[in-house]
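The aim of this short unit is practical: by the end, you should be able to scan a pair of folded records and say something sensible about each. We start with the first protein, listed as its amino acid sequence and then its structure tokens.
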Amino acid sequence: MGDLEKKSKILIFGGTGYYGTYQVKACVAAAHPTYVYVRPFKPHHDPSKSDLLQEFKSLGVTIFEGELNEHEKLVEAIRQVDIVIVTLGMPPIMDQLKIIAAMKEAGNVKRFIPSEFGNEVDRISPLPPYQACCDQKKVIRRAAEKSGIPYTFVVANTYGAYFVNYLLRPYDKKSNKVAIYGTGEARFSCNYEKDIAEYTVKVATDPRTENGLIIYRLPKCIITQMDLISIWEKKTGRTMEKTYISEEKLINLSETLPFPDNVPMAILHSLFVKGEEMAYDLKEDDLDVVELYPEYKYTTVEELLDIFLADPPKPVLAAF
């Protein structure tokens, strides 16, 4: 058994964010000593963050408080762990350069998972607002490659629960309206966040994934928007009233809305018009998460919709 496969100490940045919460709980569930680096809590902050930190502590999570520009605090925290997983969103994603600098000084990190968890940024060509986000992730990738720190790039594709909420609005029992982007026929990989996080713990502690790129295309989660709506209609007995949003409309909104409102329009275009998640073939040295971990029973799209029927997760639709 390699050193990483033992119970590694894992530090998570962005652990109180939407996806970060899943990642923290997955590390705890896998019995890894888990640490979270968070900004100091201030009275004006959302009290739910305080509640979440208390929940983390009750699970045995160690909390480090500090800003990302406090280099010495970063180094001190990083020296206590083996693995660093970053789940920061936009715009602070470029702060990972500060984390990389701290890891280089600490000199002890055995694996770095930068904040990716979306599309394969080196192989897509989205509209400019989304391209700008991808370009920032590319900067982090190149910095990770040059750092000498073992890394893994995780291409997790679509957050399933998030986009079921976004597309189907299952919490709104009074509305049967649904927007369809483009023709609704583009395929995407609708992966449940819990599975993404649990796979990522495996990836972070696996010697086979060192300095590699791993892609989460889960066969029973690859679906079109039209098929997703059809399954939902069968499960609920409801007929959805469909409104089509054309490619031209999305392009126009991406060009005319102010930042950051234009970014989601470009992401919707990439996912549901161009189908960029599934538009490229895997290369010989790409890692396939399902092939690496065939024993893991991931949540299918059908099962994810059943979760929403039984106990709809709280919608988080402020931003992608």
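Turning to the second protein, read its sequence before its tokens, just as you did above.
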Amino acid sequence: MARHHHLLLPLLSLLITVVVVVTAAGASIDFRADLNHPYAGIPLSTTETTARAARASRARAARITARLARAVLGSKGALSSADVPLAPLGDQGHSLTVGIGTPPQPRTLIVDTGSDLIWTQCAARRQHRERPPLYYDPGRSSSFAFLPCGSRLCQEGQFSFKNCTGNRCLYDDVYGSAEADGALASETFTFGDHSKVSVPGLGFGCGELSAGSLVGASGLIGLSPGTLSLISQLSIPKFSYCLTPFAERKTSPLLFGSMADLKKYKTKEPIQTTSILSNPAMETAYYYVPLVGLSLGTRRLRVPASSLAMRPDGTGGTIVDSGSTLAYLPETAFEVVRKAVVEMVRLPVANVTVEDYELCFALPGGAAMSAVETPPLVLHFDGGAAMVLHRDNYFQEPRAGLMCLAVGSSPDDFGVSIIGNVQQQNMHVLFDVRNQKFSFAPTHCDSI
């Protein structure tokens, strides 16, 4: 793996003052922000964005599988880079505009429930300043400071690679489709669209994207349960979001603290709740939920419960992911679902290859997917909660004349089931981190 820490040397000389990160642990952090659509402002057609998002979802699923494989196998083995297809990180999730520094520099960060590190590209050298929308400049902030090697975040943070040089905590993180390196630092971050909340001393990564691309974003903001995430650093007890339909490209509400309360907002159906699980093999980087079965219409599918369960070694299980567009199921479960869909959707299976989709139907001449009726796909969780997915939550139209299943397959051995963005659109979902509960309710997201 290539190292690029020499890029940080000019940055390391900017400031000599080092402070220990000060977090808002125990304080009430309540605010609302509006998430940008992954393709907001990008001149692509709906079919083009759908195809790109599907490709990015496959890359992300491969990355998650590789991460679990490394955690389980350790030095005994891992997936090769050939198993992790490239896709821009900007294709994989919604983004949030935040203020970084004093005075605040507005920068756009990709929101990811499957990552913990908050990081942004830093203007370490003068030539970077010609791109101010993307690069944050620590030289223009009075509140920036590097974190020393002995800081808690440096000691406890999980990275692909970590090193200390000149008492700076240097890191390298691999995302499967991208690689970022930098130095841990602390800074004041300002959040919120309707009212501003400033958080001093937030730990983050200041560095470079050394491989891959971000498609117009500056960096990433992690919302996972991991040590370095915004949720963990600020001890935020709960957060929620409600994703507007993918094809509409509208903003989506993201709510933190006391504002993340599904009972405060009008839902189309009752609120349902299940548990959030921990992974025994690794520091939990994802929000696992206990998926126990699936139905198509009123028919319960014969999906083996063992194919959905998390195993004692940490493989398997189901995550709710903000960065995937498509859903994924292990091959055993996927084949049962595929067969049932073919039987119940009365359309001919398309005889063309559609990249990144494993099942497509040929629409009647001139018809759109909106004219087709399909039975709901239901996700059953432990405790009785059931997420009902209607046509637009499990089918997509990647090109005219084709209706494709927005569910793919992952390997049975290390594969994890993923509930993606298509499944979550117009669904208000809440992560009660303190009580380890996951709640959801169908909602008109643009009305929140």
